[in-house]
Specification:
This protein has 358 residues and is an alpha+beta fold. It has three domains: 1-58 and 207-228, no CATH class; 60-191, Jelly Rolls; 230-355, Jelly Rolls. Helix content is 22%, strand content 29%. The chain has a four-stranded antiparallel beta sheet, with no helix packed on it. The protein has a four-stranded mixed beta sheet with strand order 6-5-2-8, with no helix packed on it. Strand 3 (106-115) and strand 4 (121-129) form a beta hairpin. Helix 3 packs antiparallel against helix 4. The radius of gyration is 21 Å and the shape is globular. It starts with 5 loop residues before the first helix and ends with a strand.
């Protein structure tokens, strides 16, 4: 049996995938049966994303959009207010993005050198905000993605660029129209080449590396927040987040929350002049909690403000008498994140543990 048979490729993939889960399954972050169950589900979700990324949508000559984070696949404190779109691209090609901006409040495009499977980083190689894009009266636009500047609507990429990320941020999805985007390589062939054992093997080897690398970096983040930001939001040094592919428009305040059944977390802050803000809670694996069925986040549109313009958020098991409720959804601990988007000032919210008087 040679090393490139279909059977050997599959068996190696399964062995590598098993080993990739060790970082999560051996972690002391799992302090409850719920944490343990979510750990296994987390690994399955990362595997699905990895297969989309490295197998189904892996050809930079024929890019197509997939979602690396959504309601049932979540990475690194994914934003419930976002619609993420990812595409595999390369510095060997130039691309044309066509679309319509809709009415979504925030729309941004970023090219990245995705090194999650190597060293847990995702370097920015180009950023473009829709406010800097010349759109037609009907909202349509075209953006050139290339190494050399082309036209007014230009998104740079570099030799090691491997990913395009489109972020659509909603404040109230019931009132806002999503943007539409499509991407094509300008200098590619007519049709993709057929799948080969070599391509299959390379893709399936990348998936476990992605699962292990992604799980490890965010496990380390959660451990750091648990140790240094326990029931606090004060990660003012942004270098770690930008190195992991964070949006340059956003100032990230991460933390760890932990509560007894009769306790609540009261978070209070002034609101600076900004494009928007939001707050969310996550499980220990830095996955946003189930926002399909629980109010686990709020933002500048959804929250009720205090009379003085400030905002108070209450994280608790049961609904409080006042404040904007964030439901712990049967969890007792996890990570949390406050985002200031497009803000000149970045106040650190005051966080305190109080008794949950229902």
């Amino acid at each position: 049996m040679t090393d490139d048979t279909a059977q050997s490729i599959w068996r190696k993939f399964c062995r590598d995938l098993e080993a990739a889960g060790d970082s999560v399954l051996s972690s002391d972050l799992a302090a409850s049966p719920l944490d343990e169950a979510e750990a296994v589900r987390y690994l399955t979700r990362l595997t699905r994303v990895g297969l989309d990324m490295f197998l189904e949508n892996a050809d930079p000559a024929f890019p197509s959009f997939y979602q690396a984070s959504h309601a049932t696949a979540k990475i690194g404190s994914d934003n419930p207010d976002n619609f993420y779109q990812n595409a595999t691209i390369s510095g060997d090609y130039s691309y044309l993005i066509k679309g319509n901006r809709g009415t979504v409040p925030i729309l941004s495009f970023g090219t990245k050198a995705n090194r999650y499977a190597v060293d847990g980083t995702m370097a920015s190689t180009g950023e473009l905000d829709i406010r800097d894009v010349k759109c037609k009266p009907d909202g349509s636009f075209e953006i050139t993605v290339s190494r050399e500047k082309q036209g007014d609507n230009w998104l740079p990429l570099e030799g090691d660029t491997s990913m395009l990320i489109v972020r659509q941020t909603f404040f109230d999805r019931s009132k806002e129209t999503p943007a539409t985007v499509d991407i094509t390589a300008i200098n590619a062939g007519a049709t993709p080449d057929p799948l080969t054992h070599k391509k299959l093997s390379a893709g399936l080897q990348s998936v476990p590396a992605f699962v292990g690398g992604t799980a490890t970096i965010f496990k380390h983040w959660a451990e750091l927040f648990r140790a240094e930001n326990h029931n606090a939001l004060n990660t003012v040094n942004q270098a770690m987040f930008s190195n992991a592919g964070g949006d340059p428009m956003i100032f990230y305040l991460h933390g760890w929350w932990q509560l007894a059944d009769d306790e609540a977390l009261r978070i209070h802050t002034e609101i600076p002049d900004c494009e928007g803000w939001n707050f969310q809670i996550n499980n220990v694996w830095m996955e946003s909690l189930d926002y399909r069925h629980h109010p686990i986040h709020t933002n500048n549109e959804l929250a009720d403000l205090n009379d003085d313009g400030s905002v108070t958020v209450i994280v608790s098991k049961t609904r409080p008498k006042s404040g904007n409720w964030i439901d712990t959804a049967s969890h007792t601990h996890g990570t949390m994140l406050w985002r200031w988007t497009g803000a000149d000032d970045h106040p650190v919210p005051k966080v305190e543990v109080i008794k949950n008087h229902v």
